[in-house]
Design brief:
The chain is 20% helix and 29% strand. The protein is an alpha+beta fold.
């Protein structure tokens, strides 16, 4: 088995928060290109992601918890990215996915997992469960356009 590669990245999309990336092999040129595209995203690019993370919060929130998040834009104050990965496509092996794992107070056990296809297009928001798309998670091609 190859040695684990650990790299540190500052994510511009999350105000340059520092996270770790763990890999067992060096990234291919295509994977590096997806990561490079992701690194060009800014906090303004979280706009389309906000509603999905907010919906995840609403579905997972404990009714007895005092945590109140009123708008999709407010959800980011509670999202703490902790790791990034670059993974080959599950259904389309020619596509690469940049995935960010983050800690959130409403789902302490599973956190939140966000994946961007080819580093630019959000394709999945959900628990950290090893799936980079809902098609793969549920083995259902009809979920190709479902982010959360």
């Amino acid at each position: 088995m190859a040695d684990m590669i650990i790299a540190t990245h500052h994510l511009p999309i999350f105000d340059n928060v520092k996270v770790k990336r763990f890999e067992f092999e060096p990234l291919s040129e295509t994977a590096q290109a997806a990561l490079a595209r992701f690194m060009t995203l800014s906090p303004a690019d979280l706009g389309p992601v906000s509603r999905h993370v907010f919906a995840y919060f609403q579905d997972r929130q404990d009714p007895d918890d005092a945590l109140t998040i009123k708008t999709p834009e407010d959800v980011w104050a509670y999202v703490s990215p902790s790791a990034i990965s670059v993974e080959p496509g599950d259904v389309h092996p020619d596509r690469w996915y940049v995935a960010v794992e983050a800690n959130v107070p409403w789902e302490v056990e599973h956190g939140v997992h966000m994946a961007w296809e080819n580093g630019t297009d959000i394709v999945r928001v959900g628990p950290v469960d090893g799936h980079i798309s809902n098609v793969w998670a549920y083995d259902d091609d009809s979920l190709a356009d479902v982010v959360y």
